[in-house]
Design a protein that fits this description.
Shape: globular
Strand order of the largest sheet: 7-5-6-2-1-8-9
Radius of gyration: 19 Å
Strand content: 15-25%
Order of helices and strands: EHEEEHEEEHEHEH
Low-confidence stretches: none
Number of strands: 9
């Protein structure tokens, strides 16, 4: 029996980056990677055969040296048997202003499945067409709309979702919080109502709030008591439709 106690359809989480935040103890890079490698084995065991794992990561930075975690972790997922599906680049305009290197303005979402059979609801996450009235100008479809009326595939570069910083309406006391809209898009794409979503690093419970909002069950772990209190409050506000969110 795995630590979760059941199989889940979607694992969506953002692990600590080993950069010394208040919720982690910074360790040697190889020690951190070995820990992650063990977690990846657990994820494989927890995930259902038709499930998907989405891991949102940034950089490990040590004395000015920048190590992209998606690059360092990728082979661990492959060795475990995961199948790579996408590397989504999430871009944003705000963050730490560096003086000796270019400021980081993106993070990545690594998307893996356990098998060839998995959920992907493209129509649920389509975004507006750039030219919605564009039509075929010749051929048998002349005059008809050339784009999907439901919208276009959002692609693997997401620049339309704002990062959670100081003046963001969703900001809590958690120092590294991702936005609810990011969760919504992932949950809609890779799960169906009544499926179970699992977040092993719940933080401020954003994954849980998004899963509950969209009619999914959810499971998760969080060690920090102060974050659990923040998360419980957010869940209550979400259920009462009082949770402050970014409007895109």
């Amino acid at each position: 029996m795995n630590a979760v106690g059941q199989k889940v359809t979607l694992i969506l989480s953002s692990p600590p980056y080993n950069i010394g935040k208040e919720y982690e103890n910074k360790s040697a890079l190889q020690t951190y990677l070995e820990w992650q490698k063990q977690l990846i084995k657990e994820y494989y065991d927890v995930l259902s055969d038709n499930g998907t794992l989405v891991y949102q990561v940034g950089n490990f930075v040590d004395r000015g040296k920048v190590y992209p975690l998606d690059c360092l972790l990728f082979n661990y997922f492959i060795e475990q048997g995961f199948i790579p599906r996408n590397r989504i680049v999430w871009t944003f305009g705000h963050g730490l202003h560096c003086t000796k290197r270019l400021s980081g303005r993106h993070e990545t979402l690594m998307v893996f499945t356990k098998s060839e059979k998995y959920c992907f609801n493209l129509d649920d996450i389509r975004v507006p067409q750039k030219n919605p009235n564009k039509r075929y100008y010749k051929g048998p479809k002349k005059g008809q709309l050339s784009g999907n009326p439901l919208g276009k595939n959002p692609g693997d570069v997401w620049s339309d979702i704002t990062n959670v910083k100081n003046n963001h309406p969703e900001k809590t006391d958690h120092p590294c919080q991702y936005p609810l809209e990011l969760v919504r898009r992932v949950v809609k794409a890779y799960s169906n109502p009544s499926d179970t979503v699992f977040d092993p690093f719940m933080g401020s419970f954003t994954t849980a709030c998004g899963a509950a909002e969209l009619g999914r069950d959810f499971l998760g772990f969080e060690l920090m008591p102060e974050y659990i209190e923040i998360g419980k409050k957010r869940l209550e506000e979400s259920k009462a439709n009082r949770l402050l969110v970014e409007v895109n």
